[in-house]
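Sequence only, no structure available. Ideas?
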Amino acid sequence: MSIVPTAESIKQGWWVDRKVYFSEEVFQLERERIFAKTWHFACLVTDVKNPGDFFSMSVINQPILIVRDGEGQLGAFFNSCTHRGAMLTHERSGNCGRLFRCMYHAWAFSLKGELLGVPYVDAYGPDFDRKDFALHSVRCETFCNLVFVTLNPKAPPLIDYLGEIADVLSTYATGIEVIARNSWVYDGNWKLWHENFRDNYHPQFAHRGINDATPHYADRGGNWALAPGHSLLRWISEKPNVTSYKRSMKRYSGVEFPEAGNPSLTGGNWEYREAPQDVLAIFPNMDMQPGMASTEPGQRGSRMGHIQTLTPLSPHRTRVDYIAYSSTDDDPVTRQAMLEGLAENQGSWGKISCDDVEAAVRCHAGVQAQGTQYTPFTRGIKPGKGGADVDPRDEYSLREFYRVYTQYLEGDVVSEASIARNS
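Reply:
I predicted one. Tokens follow.
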């Protein structure tokens, strides 16, 4: 590890030029060389489980529809009528029946993207062929219960793209469905939020509630760089110190909080057990925080948690799309308890997320200051990719992101699949 930035240490993600957070030129390169070339989480399979079900999203400025056709196959298309370009739907999700009909001139498309109907079609002449105006498809693949899309026809298969994180991800990504959605916008660069989910150094300081209740949360666990560009943080949960937490709450609010029946102090309906807590980050812009992992061999981890994806609106502005999920077979009481527990801490309203937003906004303003050109990601000097025997607060996870980020941004990638093969 170089104690000063060098060409090689920058390439390997140990140092990052701060212009990547605010440069318009870098922002455009990110759109062209990263977002247009990589796989992106779109929705859960359960969002589009019946014929006619659709889910709409966007990758950079490209509107996309994920659709379940009449034969049960999943496909994706650009959400753009091939006549005048009007979006076929502005709804986030729903069921369109047997076809999509454009509101502008009523051109109608099948669930497979075929152009079925054109009002007053004779006016186009005898050479008009509906096949020439089918919806343009987008690559779409699934992994367990997750649906991904890519604008890049040459991107590697999704399973290759996920690489070393696939086994960990499969632990949590089966048998789940959305129970709530939320979106918000903050004034800061998208990478600052994604970095936050790869950073296990900040919670002790930025989240006072975590520190007061579980001051040693990160003393055990690990920090993994998972090629290509992904990462895993893990810590071992500890039983909250309710007395310390109550004392802190009273100190900052002046209010005496009763312990009995207070989810903030008792953990709601959950019985405490010591277990690993994981945070997964998938390149370039997906973050997943499941419930506690199972400590029993061969047992799946808790099927509840949240997923967040980032849409960069400009170098200085980012939209966060948040979903809370639970098991498809959870009963309503369990699901409600899960949702209340997540809502208390995560999302635009959450008492943990609000700390993270504040940190991202402050960092974005500060990295534009003159005098400091490079940010160090140099915690953890042990060679390799981290693991269970490194300090969970180390930055192997962040270096892996910027290692792959730099490859894409500098155009050094001969083929996207080579990132995984050569890592």
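The domain at 163-238+274-422 is CATH 3.90.380.10 (Naphthalene 1,2-dioxygenase Alpha Subunit; Chain A, domain 1).
Hope that gets you unstuck.
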